[in-house]
Design goal:
10% strand, single chain, alpha+beta, five-stranded antiparallel sheet, NADH Oxidase, binds flavin mononucleotide, 235 residues, 5 strands, globular, 9 helices
């Protein structure tokens, strides 16, 4: 099913500088239906597994969904979750009409079965987790668990960007864990943490929009300004 996609040369991103890739790794939610070679998906997952994990345990597991029927089942769940999310966005005054982000998110929700690949990063739990999840440091442990899969997820997003593949991090389906578990035949010891639709992008990559460092950083103590400093050239 996976043949080499027909791609125009100009679509292949020439940049390999890590900073260029990070600064233009925005959510690409409008994706073409063209197949993506499985070898590329292998490469992005491999890039993911170069990330760190708690205790070096590498409890990440990945499910790559390419079957149309399965994508459609997941898309149905996602759309249901999106209907709730869009109500919350609307309450905050954000609608597809006034927010580019909501518009793109709505597009993705309505077309989730279209991209050739839905990649689902999961984390394997262990018997010892139970005691920690029921213990006094539960909240800390939950943070650490997430921290054992999100570095891999970010590496995957960066790798997709570097290869000219569109991707975005989504989490709506984690609200429907039981249904996802059934669709994907997941054993009890795996928990989904995200869903990353991957495909060749319809639009162009562009810079991300972020708050400046000095607005979100303090020096030594909270409240003490971190200075705005001149840009350092990439090496
Ligand atoms: C933890 C997390 C959960 C997210 N969940 C979703 C999601 O379910 N659906 C979606 O369309 N985008 C989701 N996003 C993407 C963000 O909306 C997006 O990164 C943000 O709006 C910034 O846009 P940009 O990535 O294009 O710069 C999520 C991002 C993060 C970090």
């Amino acid at each position: 099913m996976f043949c080499s996609a027909q791609r125009e040369e100009e679509d292949i991103m020439a940049e390999t500088d890590l900073f260029d890739i990070m600064y233009s790794c925005r959510s690409m939610r409008r994706l073409r239906t063209d197949p993506v070679p499985l070898a590329l998906i292998y490469k992005v997952i491999e890039a993911g597994t170069q990330g760190p994990s708690g205790g070096g345990v590498q409890a990440w597991r990945f499910v790559v969904v390419t079957e149309q029927k399965v994508k459609e089942q997941i898309a149905e769940i996602y759309l249901r979750g999106w209907r709730m999310a869009e109500t919350n966005y609307a309450k905050a005054g954000l609608t597809p009409e006034n927010s580019k982000n909501v518009r793109a998110a709505a597009y993705l929700a309505e077309h989730l079965a279209a991209p050739p690949v839905l990649l689902i990063p999961c984390l394997r739990s262990r018997k010892s987790h139970e005691a920690r999840l029921n213990g006094p440091n539960r909240e800390t442990f939950l943070r650490i668990l997430g921290g054992s899969i999100y570095p891999a997820i970010q590496n995957i997003l960066l790798a997709c960007r570097a290869l000219g593949l569109g991707a975005s991090l989504t989490t709506i389906t984690t609200l429907y864990e039981d249904e996802m578990r059934q669709i994907l035949d997941l054993p009890e010891f795996l928990t989904t943490y995200a869903l990353i639709p991957i495909g060749y992008p319809k639009g162009k990559f562009g810079p991300v929009t972020r708050r400046p460092v000095e607005e979100v950083t303090w020096l030594n103590r909270y409240g003490e300004a971190f200075p705005q400093l001149p840009a350092v050239e990439n090496a």
